[in-house]
Amino acid sequence: MTWSNWVRQIHRWLSIAFAVAVVANIVALQQEKPAVWVGLSALIPLALLLLTGLYLFALPYAATWRGRRRTGGREQA
Question: Where exactly are the transmembrane stretches of this chain (predicted)?
Fold first, then answer.
């Protein structure tokens, strides 16, 4: 598996962890005295989702940039 495939897989699992943390947050808010740490627990997967998402967003642009660098900046027909 290549590096980008690993990042994609991690991004998918992080999205599941984030969804579970949001559901746990909603359940915790229904309690009489909600725990603060449950509300903050969703921020960890969210921050990691941001990092992996930015990497995945930049991949096509990086591939284009690397391709131009190899050809000397000229487009090939």
Answer: 12-29, 35-59
Backbone angles phi and psi of 71, in degrees to 5: -90, 5
What's the residue count for the chain?
Answer: 77
Residue 57 CA to residue 4 CA, distance in Å, equals 11
Per DSSP, the residues of the chain read --HHHHHHHHHHHHHHHHHHHHHHHHHHHTSSS--HHHHHTTHHHHHHHHHHHHHHHHHHHHHHHHHHHHTTSPPP-
Cα separation, 17 vs 49, whole angstroms: 10
